[in-house]
Amino acid sequence: MGNASKIPMIGLVGGVGSGKSSVASALLSLGCTVADSDAQVRKLCELPEIRAQLQTWWGPGVVNDAGQIDRAAVAAVVFRDPAERKRLEALIHPKVEAARRALFAAAPPGTRAFVIDAPLLLEAGLAGECSQIWFVDAPETARRARVMADRGWSAEELDRREAAQWSLDRKRAAAHHVIRNDGDPASLRDQVLQALGNLPKTR
Question: Is residue 202 part of a domain?
């Protein structure tokens, strides 16, 4: 990756609905290159070969009437059966990693940092690639309200998703910085700017 190897890497972690995407947006506006794993997965799911593979595994019900992957139907399968989740991850994760590396390799000169925004960053063993891990913290009530409003998830669905991830305490303990998201955009940006200034200059 040439000079890209001298650019620090930030890994974003936190609870579901904590506001990692808000931190990622702030970092993007401050001159960082952000790899959004969820967005990359959504793009991959548009590929005919991915749709065909999931239908082969789990039947036609994982594709909706518009011919698109039904993410809720896939989630119902993989969060019920860890073996199926691992099979999906083995299919998707290498492609997400390839897309991330291509994005970082094409980063413009002057990029301040690379950012990995991935729900399973720690679980997937990506911490070793990062200069720093930032934990985005938010009150549980705010997180539950956010996922209910933005994603239509029930409390049970949130609990099911979080059960498949490291605990919040374990994520927090692995972090170099804690960014507190109390719903104040100005405060959040100030914290991001301060943490960005404390990054090591090279990886």
Answer: no
